[in-house]
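tool=predict chain=A
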Amino acid sequence: MMDRRGLLLSIGATIAPAVALADEGVVKGRKGGPNMIKGNPPKLDFGGGLIVPMNASIFRTLWEGEDRWITYGRALSTQKARAMGQSEHAAIGSMKLMLLTLVFAPDRLERFETCGWKLKSGDTADLVKGDIALPGRPVMPTVDEVSSSMGQAPEGGAVGDPAFHAITGYMVMKKDAPLTYIKEKAQLLSEAAPS
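tool=predict ok
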């Protein structure tokens, strides 16, 4: 079973490699990763105003720094490879939907933790639906074997079955996908089109 410490370790292991995906692995003059800020919860400082808390708030949030966007996804499955793939899909899907909402319906979002964006309503029905090809890359998922006795049945199993919990991040550099790119390249569903 994944406890709070396990979740924090998984999040930390997932977030740190995201820095290496940036140009030459350097973030505001720092090599090797973000700085840890002690506290409750601890936070990772990527530089450029991007400070991410190491708790469950990383999910369902679009994190924005001066030079990048980051989203996170997680999945639970009885198969390790499936959990990894689904966590990547969740992170990529979150990125697309949150960026589309930021561009076409920014009034549905609110600032969170100084550098995050989340839905005001908390209802995913308020996300702008559509698709866009993004030049980002997922970070290799971290995977832990857990008991699904947390009350959630893993895909392909039942509550109590052994399962794999995967967490991954997805990063898009702003220079590769500025908001103007999102506006020009987005394919919106008709009901999501701005009025």
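The longest strand covers residues 162-173. DSSP finds three helices and 14 strands in the chain.
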